[in-house]
Design brief:
By secondary structure, the protein is of the alpha+beta class. The protein has one domain: Glutaredoxin, CATH 3.40.30.10. The protein has seven helices and five strands. Strands 1-3-2-4-5 form a five-stranded mixed sheet. A hairpin with a 2-residue loop joins strand 4 and strand 5.
Length: about 180
């Protein structure tokens, strides 16, 4: 088992976050991720499996950490997820973005919105105006202050998980804090 990190989550989980699971869950897993990052793409099904395995013992939070220097579409994809969230469909867009990581240009983002019954015109306008850019940057800066320097970065009950992010390692770490 990996020794716990001294890095802590500086921005507590609140209702500003995108959350799946019960507020009373024994384990809160926060992921700082980038929709264009191949490592985050590999982590996506692992997190889904962890959610299934732990059920109501796990609360999952996703925060944006677009690595714009290496992923040209990451920030726009994060803005699209936030725009979908404003229409109550964050998790549907989150799924679509990880499912279609290689097609994250604005035309595709609007197309995904239409398929997900999100107001595509409204999402397109939000992307053009960068309506949610500041929200994405808030997530990013909270990650920087918490010691995030790559994606995906996970925090389990407020402490950075520095071990591997395969299902076995995340399960062991989560169950270690769940008791």
């Amino acid at each position: 088992m990996t020794a716990p990190s001294s890095a802590r989550l500086t921005l507590p989980v609140t209702d500003r976050d995108h959350i799946q699971g019960s507020p009373e869950a024994a384990v809160t897993l926060v992921e700082y991720g980038d929709y264009e990052c191949p490592h985050c793409g590999r982590a996506y099904p692992i997190v889904e499996a962890l959610r299934q395995n732990l059920g109501d013992r796990l609360r999952f939070v996703f925060r944006n950490f677009p690595l714009t220097q290496v992923h040209a579409h990451a920030e726009m994809a994060a803005e699209a997820a936030e725009a979908a969230g404003a229409q109550g469909r964050f998790w549907e867009m989150h799924h679509a973005l990880f499912t279609h990581q290689n097609a994250l240009d604005s035309a595709h983002l609007v197309q995904y919105a239409g398929r997900l019954r999100i107001n595509a015109a409204q999402l397109g306008e939000a992307l053009a105006a960068h309506t949610f850019r500041e929200r994405v940057r808030e997530d990013f800066m909270s990650g920087v202050r918490s010691g995030v320097n790559g994606t995906p970065t996970f925090f389990i009950n407020g402490r950075r998980h520095d071990g591997p992010f395969d299902l076995e390692a995340l399960t062991e770490a989560a169950e270690g804090v769940a008791g």
